[in-house]
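so the lab meeting is tmrw and i was supposed to have these ready like two days ago... anyway. pasting both below. for each one the top line is the aa sequence and the line under it is the structure tokens. i havent really looked at them closely yet so no promises
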Amino acid sequence: MTSKRRRLAERRKACGFNQEEFAEAVGVDRSTVQRWENGKTGPQPWQRPKLAKALEITANELDALLIPDSCTSPQTPSAWLAVAPSASDDEFDAFELARRVSASDVGKETLSRLENTFDELAMKYPVSPPQELLERVRKHSAYVAHLMDARMTLSEQRRLYVVGGWFQLLGATLHIDLNQEHSATARLQTAATLARHAEFPEIEAWCYETDAWRVLTDGDYSRALELSQVAQQLAPAGSSAAIQATAQEGRARARLGERKETYVAIDRVQRMSDSLIQRKGTEHHYQYDAGKSLAYTATTLAWVGDPAAENCAREVIAKLAPADDIHKWPRRVASANIDLSLALLGVGRLDEACDAAQRAILSGRIVPSNHWRALEVVKAVEIRQLPEASDLREAYQGLKALESGTQGS
């Protein structure tokens, strides 16, 4: 601590203040006073009149307490102040602005760790129970909120808003998986707000795409189509969000029975995904890949009643299913088995269809928001009065019971 900063502490003590009392008198935290007195930071321009009043000194006398006696570098603001003690207010404001631009209590390392953690969770999404993953998302979202009040540079603030938006988006997706509608809506709104403040349209596009999937699962196919088109307008050209939103459009059109438009959407997705630079390693929920394109095509074709869905679904299963252990399936494989079942029912291969559906249901990889897809198969089997109908219904009821237990925990 420089001798001048010692004088600041000495003056405070001479006025009868301990650090805590002095902090209260000028309206700051005790840690702020400590930083002033050890030379790490200086008071903001609007804080100086309060300091001068509390210390019973003039503004010039306060400046003398805050300017160090000597400077180690002639290029630092403190050095310029030392050689120009009579600097004007304009010069002091410029020096203060330069200091504040580079001052931070957040740091690049903290932001990098948050970004890496988000990527880790997004890659765990396909194979993790939603409730389990949601707990980690909640903790990291709370930490991001805590950092919002910290001092940081403008570039760090933007990075914090972006990573905060990603965590909120992932949290919303998990709430949707768990049929927690109000929480999902709140998180989607927060994610979109952070994205707009950070001028990061890809997150906002993902918010609309995610909401399109939510309303599609509720049976509002026209609204799903509308939301997916808004997402495409917002998404950067060629981005994963643009491709996913186009795929969502295809699924909505398939449910609406718009066959021609459905195939157009499938073709657009294929062309965009072919030109996308593929990410190496584990599947990331917010980064499109060739496997995701195939899985979405299988679902879309199954919904539009195209027998080609069978080959697509089988290819997804062959690529991603680890041996015969259904409990280790990624979520995508369970969905592919549902698609396979629908395709097989359409061509009258009923035994195989029932087997695929039962494996999907018993895998434990169908999240609550997707139970309706399994129920479609169960009802189709029951309508045909197949012998397997009772076993399939029993398996489905077990899935619903598991959902109730998860939401109650």
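ok protien two:
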Amino acid sequence: MSSNLLVLLVLFLGVLAIGKSVKERHIENKLSRALSRVNGQPSASSLMSADCRAGIAINSDGTAICMAGGNWINTEVFTASEVLSAELYIDGECETRTSRTSQIGGALVGGLLLGGVGVIVGGLTGRKKSHRMVSSIDLRVMVNDTHNPLHEVRLLGREQSRNSPQVKKIIDSARAFHARLDVMIKRADREDREAERLESLALQSKQAAAPSLSIADELRKLGELKASGDLTEAEYQTLRARLIT
């Protein structure tokens, strides 16, 4: 009887394992499809978490990213200007970071940090481990979304040798992806600065034009006073000289 129960238990566990494997492959395929296109364009690069429950992709012209994950593989798309920072963490330590620095982008980052995200980001650093072993590799992206600003893709979730081919491949892929995000963020910063420069020039032009309009009005009024006889020629010339000098 006990042997039959053991056989049934093994069969039951086998069925559960097969069912779980099929479900995991289904989720992985669904996530892969979600990351294959961004804003109607084929993705140029994508990363999936170690458990295949989260991922990130960049579209072919580098103008948008797609964040996907969850049991139902929900997707969110953000434009390049909405990507505020990108960080690559290895064992809880930030290896590389890019953040918006323009006046507009910096204000957005600052606003989200004041909302508490800075505490989350700062609190994620972990205990320093041996350089020979790695237990976690995370890509963290902050976007301009007050409801869900911080997205994390855990690329490695169990301790392995840093020199193993798998870990090296993950680190290289993560660095390459971060480099793409770096280009996106810096390009958005340049566009912000150009917009700020044009706005500043327009304001300067407006301010420079304002005195000219005021002088023209005053000269017109002086001319009217002269024509009506309220000002003599000498008075007119004196006041006119004061305005134009």
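from a quick look at the 2nd one: The radius of gyration is 31 Å. Residues 202-244 form one domain. will dig more after coffe
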